[in-house]
Every structure is written in C-alpha cells, then in structure tokens.
Amino acid sequence: MVGRKSVIGALLAVALAYVIYPYATLYRLGLAIRHGDAATLQSMVDWSAVREGIKEDICDLVIDEPKDAKANGQLPPFGAGFVRGIAGNAVDAKVTPEALVAAASDQPAAKPAQQGAAVRVSWAFCNSPAGFQVDLRAPGQAEPIRLQLDLRSGAWRVTRVWLPAELLGAANART
Fold first, then answer.
1. Apex 146 CA angle, 62 and 61, nearest 5
2. What is the pLDDT of residue 23?
3. Between the CA of residue 38 and those of 43, 51, 104, what are the distances in Å?
4. Residue 145 pairs with which residues in a beta bridge?
5. Whole-model pTM above 0.85?
6. Distance (Å, rounded) from C-alpha 53 to C-alpha 167?
7. Which helix H or strand E contains 6, and what residues bound it?
8. How many CB atoms lie within 10 A of CB 173?
9. Would you say residue 117 has pLDDT above 70?
10. What order of strands is seen across the sheet that includes strand 155-162?
11. How far is it, in rounded angstroms, from Cα 154 to Cα 32?
12. How far is the C-alpha of 80 from the C-alpha of 71, rounded, in Å?
C-alpha cells in the first residue's frame, strides 16, 4: 500500500510538471524578450521554422489578396516565385533573435497609465501531447499573434508564428 501511494504521488508530480512546463517556458520567453537576451531567444525558438512559416503567410497574403482586381487572384508562376524570393530575403534578414530584441527595446517606456497596454497572453493551452498554442493580443489589433510551441528533445521551442494579416500587410508594404 505504501509503495502504491508513492508511485501514484510520483506520477502526479510528473503530470503536474508536464502541465506547468510549457507555461514556465512561455514565462522564460517573455523574460528573454524583456531583458534583451538574444542567446536565450536563439535556444528557445526554431528560427528557421518560424521564418519559413512567415514566408508562407506573406506569399499567401500576396497571392490571395491581389491589389489589382483584374488579376483574378492569380499570379503567373514567375510572379509567385518572385514574391517568394523577395519575401524570403526580407524575412531571413529581419526575423532573428537580435531583431526581436531590437524591436522590443525600441518601444518607448510606457507611461503609468499605459502600463497595461503591452502584448498580453489571451489564450494558452496544449493542443496535442507535444504541442502548445498561445494567442497574444496586442493593443489595437483585432487578430491575435499565435505561437506554436513543440516539445522537442525534452524542451519546449517556438516552431511557428502566425502574424495577423495587418502585420503581414505592413511587412509586405515595406519589402
């Protein structure tokens, strides 16, 4: 009976640690961004996977929402490849741990009345045994920024980021 209780206690402790671990990782990710720790960001984010996802989203936005109504939503194969190349170069150059740290540090210090006006977690939950999804809300944005974290080799890492169309459109306008 004593052995059974210790096994049950150990299993409950492991289950509790498993449930808390992605939230602790999310907290560490936020601290790394706030403190400008690019090395920690490098280890907590699969940057190549994140960049590929953002490239796909930008290409989808450009191909699905053409500025010219006569285009019927289609780019010729050369045009689609050209957009992919331009988006790829821009995303590769700008989606880095150092760029994220610089963007976070460029934000002006919040006034006391605006201290709650930062990006906040609006939803975070496991979507599979090895997947964790987070929705972040930024002031003035209708759509959330969505992060996908995956459990790889015993550590949670950001593997995908979905930016709202308004942010992708602004990035597309600058490229």
1. 5
2. 96
3. 9, 16, 11
4. 136
5. no
6. 14
7. helix 2-35
8. 7
9. no
10. 120-128, 131-137, 145-152, 155-162
11. 20
12. 13
